[in-house]
Amino acid sequence: MLDTTTKRRIDTARDILVGKVPDPKSQVEQITIALIYKFMDDMDLDSEELGGEPTFFSGEYEKYGWRKIFNPSLGGFEMLNLYSEAILKMGQNPNLPQLFRDIFKNAYLPYRDPETLKSFLKIINDFSYDHSERLGDAFEYLLSVLGSQGDAGQFRTPRHVIDFMTALIAPKKNETVLDPACGTAGFLISAYKHILKENSSNYDKTDPYTFEQNNVKLAEITVNGKHYKGDKLSPDDRARIIQNIKGYDISPDMVRLSLVNLYLHGFTDPHIHEYDTLTSEERWNEFFDIILANPPFMSPKGGIRPHKRFAVQSKRSEVLFVDYMAEHLTPTGKAAIIVPEGIIFQSGTAYKSLRKMLVEDNYLVGVISLPAGVFNPYSGVKTSILWLDKSLAKKTDKILFAKIENDGFDLGAQRRPIKQNDLPEVFRKLTEYRDKLMLGEDVDFENEVLVSLVEKEKIEENGEFNLSGERYKQQITTTSQFPYVELKEIVDFQGGSQPPKETFIYEPKNDYVRLIQIRDFGKNPIPTFIPESSKNKLCKKDDVFIARYGASLGRICRGQEGAYNVALLKTIPDEKKITKDFLFLILQSDFIQNKIIELGNRAAQAGVRPSDLGEVPIPLPPLSVQEEIVAEIESYQKIIDGARQVVENYKPKIDIDPEWEMVELGEHCKIKGGNAFKSSDYVDKGIQLIRMGNVKQMFFDKENSPSYLPQDYLNIYSDYVLVKGDLLISMTGTVGKEDYGNVCQIDVDQQFLLNQRVGKFEIQTEQLDGQYLYFIAQTDNFRKQLFSNSSGGVRQANISNKGIESISIPLPDIDTQHQIVAQIEKEQKLVNANKQLIEIFEQKIKDRIAKVWGE
């Protein structure tokens, strides 16, 4: 696994470069070049210490040795000029093997700041090469900063997905392996590690895969955490494996990174070729036992001019890549390929021809649907994995479909670890299916949720060869007492219109109507009005809408009157069969919500389509029963609404007696500021640091991007340790927003460390009760004084320790303070009871709707 020190050095090197080299790929290239440069000099040093001669830096190139750059007699610009000249000439150094010359091909220094270079090289000089496995993991972490290479349609594949695909295909030591769009060689290294693992004496078949890891950041997952050495492999085996693993990429930059990555993972002679897989015929006659790839999703600007040897004629890169990989498998070859959803269901001629070839010519074994956000934050594109196996496909008349809804990480930009992970269970089902097919045994997935089988005949029926597994799922079977009908039998759908934005006004006016948008159903709607027109699609307050696009996809809303826009789909029920109120409830059920999300994600751009919605079945009680169900749920909703009013409107209120003494807070309490801890000190696990983002009014937010410091910092920085009961205040915010001055109290029995710009209240006298101060600090008067005492520039507002200490607070005697605290705590118990009431009755509503479905 990647050690914290190495990770921190990589982060620091990037932090140094970011001001001069903002592009992440260029940062990676500069760090790569410097690491290899130092590595060669270290090997020369080892040779000299053993009594030998330097290998790389000798003759006219001796002056470029890494140690020469650190000569203290060199001035800043002399050092810069020597380093810049060295990396330019390294590609012509005859002492270097061809691999290293390829790495330095076209290398250059993109900035001319000697101080930046000096700081950068000092960090690189601290790297240790004593453990090649660790260095390889470090480079994998470095490559994780690479995201989208958008114009080429390339998205770096998450490590756990790569490992899932590799484990499924299970390459063997004597098999040839190819990635024809290899990028940074992630799939090739995963294949190599898998072979090492299978041939290691310390390998236990129960060992977890990387896709089974929980609570590990996505960027820090490594292939070989247990350090499998492959000790069962002979030297000939190892040489053959390195010869058998090959990659192609059209980009010279990616080729360079692949070469380095493979070298650092033990490949002394990596085989990565700068090659245009789609237009060149030079390697057409090379075939492979294993192909693993995530090829580009988009055709480059200017298009592609493929040669004529492809079975499917197309100019779409994703079609051609899949064709290429299928055609370049050996007779027993296997492949796992990530593809965009267009491959799965689009109706274009090339897409249908490709699917037809995969099914009829016995390439395709299965299709594994991935979550739509698996490539976040770089792309939300929906993808699937095509599982090809020319031996298995001939043994069955079915195609397997698997659906992964959670991959162990949330689908936001940060891709934080979560508990839900379908990968291990799906992998178990797929390997069970694979193994039984090989033995000629039957497999039954009839009652499975994540995996299903569909006859090839059914897929071929209408000539579309659609590979969307949901299309073939049996109608849901439940114990519902009511008959099922498809929505199209009882509901029509009508899309809205989109008037030009230049016609929008924001105040009501004659001959204008309200434009209803999804945001109008939120807490802070912005009323918009448009001219009356026959083109407007109008709605009433009781109409039920489905949000059909974007982040709001599937949201069911009602309660607005006007003309609705294209993001909303109006439902028009046959009210002789279904009431609007019941339709509003049933559309919010989990089954319908999941179905809408699935249908929306399936479409490339258009969002959920009425024709697809119309095929969704729902249970349909008689009208009288519908009315009873609605009345029951409305009674629950009234309780929820009342409880929510209590929760949202409650604030602790203190009736100030004019007789009470008014004192400055500083007379009885001091504000202690936190320490300026550096981000470079952060570790994966340790003592949580309380930063600005962790302080929210009236509660301690334990889930807001936690940062950790080493455990021994509790002793080193004992003055900044926080414990249960401590009161904190945020001291910096945005001008005009009043998003600071929030007060929280630590309510968990553990220790923390205090960061800068967070203040801790330290009570100095017995005349001030801590809980009383906590409640006073939340009053409007306290916050009003706080903001009037703040200062700052154009954007940032700050409140100083003295500014907080100068706030006037009412100070009754200590007994009165205790009485006030007791009363407020009693009120808060009632507020918390209302929160529980909301939870209880929200669950009652869910349970009642679920009962309609027979659940």
From TrEMBL:
GO molecular function: DNA binding; N-methyltransferase activity; site-specific DNA-methyltransferase (adenine-specific) activity
Residues of the DNA methylase adenine-specific domain: 133-478
EC number, UniProt record: 2.1.1.72
Catalytic reactions on record: a 2'-deoxyadenosine in DNA + S-adenosyl-L-methionine = an N(6)-methyl-2'-deoxyadenosine in DNA + S-adenosyl-L-homocysteine + H(+)
Type I restriction modification DNA specificity domain sequence ranges: 484-640, 659-836
GO biological process: DNA restriction-modification system; methylation
InterPro entries xref list: DNA_Adenine_Mtase, DNA_methylase_A-5, DNA_methylase_N6_adenine_CS, Restrct_endonuc_typeI_TRD, Restrct_endonuc_typeI_TRD_sf, SAM-dependent_MTases_sf, T1MK-like_N_sf
Record keywords, A-Z: DNA-binding, Methyltransferase, Restriction system, S-adenosyl-L-methionine, Transferase
PROSITE patterns named in the record: N6_MTASE
Enzyme class: transferase
Family named by the database record: Belongs to the N(4)/N(6)-methyltransferase family. Belongs to the type-I restriction system S methylase family.
Name of the featured protein: site-specific DNA-methyltransferase (adenine-specific)
